[in-house]
Amino acid sequence: MKRYRMKPMASSSSPTTAETRERSLALVSRSLSNGFDFAHRLLHEVVQLQSEFLSQQAQALAEQAKELGQVIVQDAEDVGRQTLDQAQSTAVSVRRKA
Q1: SS (H, E, C) the chain
Q2: 0.85 surpassed by pTM
Q3: Is residue 17 a contact partner of residue 11, using CB atoms and an 8 Å limit?
């Protein structure tokens, strides 16, 4: 049976290995930095969009409440007029019978 010997790998003190390691670490560092910068910008935009959305929702809610309030007031006035008309009509009927 034939034995194969593995070639020894370059030691970690080898200039080529050290340079490769440094370059790799620099690339990883730059990649991570770019990723974090992107995440930061994305988060900033999401917060800004959410703020705009909430502002628009609050404005819409205020307008809806105003409209609803006007409808309620109008309906209350209508009911008040109808009640007054019925009361006056009843009073006239009572006076005629009396």
Answers
A1: CCCCCCCCCCCCCCHHHHHHHHHHHHHHHHHHHHHHHHHHHHHHHHHHHHHHHHHHHHHHHHHHHHHHHHHHHHHHHHHHHHHHHHHHHHHHHHHHHC
A2: no
A3: yes
One-letter amino acid identity for 39?
A
Q: How far apart are CA 79 and CA 67, in angstroms?
A: 18
pLDDT, tens digit, 9 for 90 and up, residues 27-65: 999 999 999 999 999 999 999 999 999 999 999 999 999
Predicted confidence at residue 97, as pLDDT, reads 81
What is the residue whose two structure tokens read 């034939």? 2
Which structure tokens are listed for 6? Answer: 């593995």
What pLDDT is recorded for position 14? 63
Q: Map tokens 């205020």 to a residue.
A: 62
In this prediction, residue 93 carries a pLDDT of: 85
First-residue to last-residue Cα distance in the chain: 134
